[in-house]
Amino acid sequence: MSPEAPFENILTLPKVEGYALVSSDDGSIIKRGGVTPGNIDEIVAFIGSAAEIISESCGVKGTKCIKVIGVDSVVIIPYNKNYLGFVITEDKRHIETSIIDMLSKEEGKARLIVNKLLKTKASQLNILIDEFAKGSDKSMWQDYVSKGLVALSKGSKIKNCISLEDLKLNVSSAKGLTPEEINKFMKLLLDFIVKKAVSEFGSDEARKRVHTVIKKMGKNK
Amino acid sequence: MIDLTDLKNTLNVQLAFRLNEPQEYVGDIENTNNVLERIKLVLTQTFDALDIPPFKQFVIFGEGRTILILHYQNEVIGVVFDEKVDVEEVRRYIYKKSGVIKTEEREAVPVEEEVVLEEETVVKEEKTFPEKREEVSETDKVITIEKGILDTVIIEKIEGIAHKYLGDFSLDIVSNVIEDSELDRERPTKDQVLEVTNSLFNAASLIIGSTKASELEEDILKVIEEER
Question: How far is B134 from chain A (nearest CA, A)?
Fold first, then answer.
């Protein structure tokens, strides 16, 4: 499941009052919200791990969800290689299905937002590249940006989502990417391109062209 | 004690096992004895490490199959079955067979619903609850009775039991639990009272521990049966 959905929205479901995203490696809390017991990290990690062993022992593969009813009642979903635990106040019939369905919907919304972000950032950089390439050696820019893309995306999931063709950045679905990853990568690429512009035109001219791009972007809004 | 063979055959489950003594299983799975020991160990260690009372239900929804482990009274029963089978049905069946829920009819009938019972069904009911004998005449082939509604005195009895275990806090706790539930104080149904009992068990476990809370729960369940 990915990208990360806004888990707070799932707390609007009846009888769901808190959540914790817990690392399956070391049991540490990655994120939590709503009302949760103090040891929610241990509850989610221990039960998640116990369920894995029980499933394996019984030859049941692919745990989709775990529900435990007791003093602390929880629904735990394996989530991006971690455990996402929801605290429930009562064992409402099929509560786990409601949580999974809502999580899926929230992920869908989050995916749309992430895709839009990637497209917007790429189109902004395209305007910048266009501006810098004006009256300049286009093949040099093609070669430079292309090398930058390869170097900066090495080992990152964004590598498969972005390419350069005819001095234009093309993006595909931002599958598995978070907004943070996209923003970080695009900032690195922007700095990389601006650095070259400064060395090509001098800082004054580079700044002037950046301002032109900012104006264009303002009109595009 | 639930009959695992009966459980397996009736629900057509892949595996049914008992983790408490006498540990046993019915069904096909490799190295079942080792598997049961492993599951028992994992559950014991997990809940010991968490320092919380054992679970009542532990359900794992896998791809194609579901594992349900129930802990009630002194029994820990596990079942592995196809995902198409409703967990609630399996849970209800085990509880019913174990006496946690006495009859399916009483659980399933909604509030105020009138149920027409054929003579054969009535006779079956009589065997379990002979005190109802006077309701069935020899000549009656069909009778109509109202099901599911309990006497309002049940609430007072629950409050009394809660006070016995929880002391002065009991009234607040019972009030909160009832407020959070859908219980109609004027016309309490068995389903609603069982829901309150379950919530009360959870709340009481935090204060007096699960063993005492289980005793409280059992006392309430007895009273519910007496009220029928």
Answer: 37
Residues of chain A in contact with residue B60, where contact means CB-CB under 8 angstroms, are 51, 54-55, 60, 63, 65-66
Q: Report the complex ipTM.
A: 0.71
Q: What is the pLDDT of residues B157-183, one digit of tens each?
A: 888 888 777 776 676 677 777 777 778
Q: How many beta carbons lie within 10 A of that of residue A40, not counting itself?
A: 20
Shortest CB distance from B63 goes to which of A50, A62, A72?
Answer: A62
Mean pLDDT of chain B: 75
Burial B140-171 (b: 16+ CB within 10 A, else e): eeeeeeebbbbeeebbebbbebbeebbeeebe
| Cis amide leading into B22 (omega within 30) | yes
Is A58 close to B29, i.e. CB distance below 8 A?
A: yes
Beta bridge partners of A68: A74, B58
Residue B98, classified by CB atoms within 10 Å of its CB into exposed (0-12), middle (13-18) or buried (19+), is middle
CATH of A7-92, one of 3.40.50.720, 3.30.450.30, 3.30.830.10, 3.40.190.10: 3.30.450.30
Using CB atoms, which residue from B53, B67, B88 is nearest to A58? B67
What is the longest distance spanned by two Cα atoms in chain B? 62
